[in-house]
Design a protein that fits this description.
The complex is a heterodimer. By secondary structure, chain A is mainly α. Helices cover 78% and strands 0% of the residues of chain A. Chain A has helices at residues 3-38, 49-57, 63-97, 109-123, 127-149, 156-180, 186-190, 199-226, 230-235, 240-262, 268-280, 284-308, 317-339. In chain B, helix 4 (111-123) packs across helix 5 and helix 5 packs parallel to helix 6. In chain B, 33% of the residues lie in helices and 29% in strands. Chain B is built from 9 helices and 12 strands. In chain B, the strands form 3 sheets. Chain B has a 6-stranded mixed β-sheet, with helices on both faces. A 4-stranded antiparallel β-sheet of chain B has the order 2-1-4-5, covered by helices on one side. The chains are: A mainly alpha, B alpha/beta.
Chain lengths: 340, 256
């Protein structure tokens, strides 16, 4: 038996296996770019492809230019950023809690952050403070859940049950606070919306995402080791507590910066990592970017549906996400339970 | 390089678990930690790998105090094999073993790291399942992967927490044989907590018998595993015979 040969064979298979993952990432990125371009002409005000191109490349002040630059593009950008951020934070939370059912949505972190954002808004001190409040409440919820999950005898399912209770609590609190403040269109706010996306909100969320993403990628490898147990991770030189804390803070930061602008858009942060895992396996270095791209695709797709399905009425994108997401999760649950 | 444990003591909530434990493991030697449940085997292992901070005494590898080492530097010297792996989000076998390279690399893995991992996969007979998912393999194979991960750290000291407790007969023998070979070839000092006295007797160079957090006896299997010590430490009446290698083989009769 030739040792070199055997080694060469494993090496070759491994190279293929890695190349496949990079291929999938590239395909996802390409589809996102194509989808983003394709949806610009779609909308309540019908624009021809020619008009759109003209507006994008020679920015004027005509009707098409305003629609494209003030309405369509910021909204598309927002959908991509929010989808990316929410899906990424979902993947992080799952990796940290070792729970494939976890996500900022199902743990109540999103709704807690949204509640916080609303409280911040009541003080009317600008977006920075809103995000700060959102972050505070988001962390509160996440730590509560983390504490619960560390208790003896907690299964992943009971943790999620607690998370969903927390979610309803904060949604209720938000409703009450909203009524007291005489807020508009509660149902729309509570199920997530991208209608009022402006370049300002795009920029704010983008800044948070661009800062947190590389840091999370840096944690990804250590999260892989932590999936084999804290002992194992510690024994290879990982500061488990620090990595866990950093990742949780960053994930909550992303969610907080997003929910302040969009309300609670659920499911995208649960479904995307789910799909990413089934395609990519459990290497977080691949799950994070692929989940992010899948999330962007999903949210951009559903938001396009939301603004075009029953024109001129806008369906909140969160509702569409729920209508698509729930059957998907149910299907996966049924399919997976069949195996074990 | 040798592992030296001198005067280590540890308390859990002021209840003493380890009392003045002194053990030395030389390079190329397998030492088994025996003792009933609660005698402090796992606690001792955790005091060595820094997971728990001993209340007194020192643990040193090649004369360097473990306490004063950076976690990452320690990880280059000391490999730990847990009793079983958590695998909620399983990765591939290759990636699991690659985790052992973590102390040497940053984010990505270099050619050398992959070489090391391929080499170890081959040594452990895991080449065929390198790309299989960690949860799609048997318990014995999983244990081998955990050992492979520890070996990928290229450690001087290997700590194993009951490496055979979840394995069937065949895998028990296979895993211990591999550990023995690696220890001899790579001049590793191995300390393993064991429950099975007969396996420990067969595969260890020396035995440390723990009783209520203290070292009851140390020495070669023949001198430590006796009718008298089993009665005193485990509270079990047993017959001690000899196995084919001249090592003690016990047949437990009844609890006293």
């Amino acid at each position: 038996m030739n040792i070199r040969e055997i080694k060469g064979e494993i090496e070759e298979r491994y190279a293929k296996y890695t190349a496949r993952k990079f291929g999938i990432l590239f395909a996802l990125l390409a589809s996102l770019v194509i989808l983003a371009i394709a949806v610009v002409p779609l909308g309540a005000a019908s624009l021809s492809i020619g008009e759109v191109f003209h507006a994008i490349f020679s920015r004027g002040s005509g009707r098409a230019d305003i629609i494209v630059w003030q309405l369509r593009l910021p909204r598309i950008a927002m959908a991509i950023i929010c989808g990316t951020g929410l899906a990424l934070s979902g993947a992080v939370v799952q990796g940290v809690l070792h729970n494939p059912l976890a996500s900022p949505f199902t743990l109540g972190v999103s709704s807690a952050a949204f509640f916080g954002g609303m409280i911040g808004g009541a003080f009317g001190a600008g977006m920075g403070l809103n995000v700060g409040f959102a972050f505070f409440f988001g962390m509160l919820a996440l730590f509560l859940i983390y504490g619960i999950s560390k208790r003896r005898g907690m299964t992943p399912e009971t943790v999620i049950l607690c998370g969903i209770c927390l979610m309803y609590l904060f949604l209720a609190l938000t409703s009450v606070a909203g009524m007291m403040g005489g807020a508009i269109g509660m149902s729309q706010i509570l199920s997530g919306f991208l209608v009022s996306s402006s370049w300002d909100s795009v920029l704010t969320t983008f800044v948070f995402l661009i800062i947190t993403f590389p840091l999370l990628m840096w944690c990804a490898r250590d999260l892989n080791a932590m999936a084999l147990g804290d002992d194992t991770a510690t024994s290879v030189g990982i500061n488990v507590k620090r990595t866990r804390m950093i990742s949780m803070v960053l994930a909550t930061l992303i969610v907080s910066s997003i929910v302040c602008f969009t309300g609670v858009i659920g499911f995208v942060c649960l479904i995307s990592p789910f799909i990413a895992r089934s395609v990519m396996g459990n290497d977080h270095r691949f799950i994070f970017p692929s989940s992010a791209l899948i999330g962007a695709l999903l949210l951009l797709g559903t938001d396009t549906l939301a603004r075009t399905a029953i024109q001129p009425i806008e369906i909140p994108v969160g509702m569409i996400m729920t209508i698509i997401g729930v059957p998907f999760i149910l299907y996966l649950a049924v399919k997976r339970s069949g195996y074990t | 390089m040798k592992l030296e444990i001198s005067g280590v003591s540890f308390d859990y909530n002021s209840r003493p678990v380890l009392k003045d434990v002194n053990i030395e493991v030389k390079a190329g030697e397998i030492v088994s930690l025996l003792g009933p449940n609660g005698s402090g085997k796992t606690t001792l292992l955790r005091c060595i790998d820094g997971m728990l901070k001993p209340k007194g005494g020192t643990v040193s590898i090649d004369g360097r105090d473990v306490k004063k080492m950076k976690q990452n530097d320690l990880a280059k010297l000391l490999g730990y094999v847990p009793q079983r792996a958590v695998n909620v989000l399983p990765c591939s076998v290759f990636d699991a073993v690659m985790i052992g390279r973590r102390p040497y690399i940053g984010w990505g893995s270099g050619k050398k790291d992959r070489e090391v991992v391929f080499e170890i996969l081959k040594l452990m007979g895991l080449g065929d399942m390198a790309l299989r998912s960690f949860d799609g393999i048997s318990g014995g194979e999983m244990q081998k992967v955990l050992i492979a991960k520890a070996l990928a750290q290229e450690p001087a000291v290997l700590l194993l927490d009951e490496p055979t407790s979840n394995l069937d007969l065949r895998h028990q023998l296979e895993v211990l044989k591999i550990i023995g070979e690696v220890v001899k070839e790579e001049k590793v000092s191995a300390l393993m907590a064991m429950h099975d006295l007969n396996l420990a007797s067969r595969f260890s160079d020396r035995i440390v018998l723990l009783k209520e957090g203290k070292v009851y006896d140390v020495g070669d299997p023949g001198s430590v595993i006796t009718q008298e010590s089993i009665r005193s430490v485990y509270g079990v009446e047993a017959i001690v015979k000899e196995n084919d290698g001249g090592r003690p083989h016990i047949i437990p009769l009844r609890a006293i």
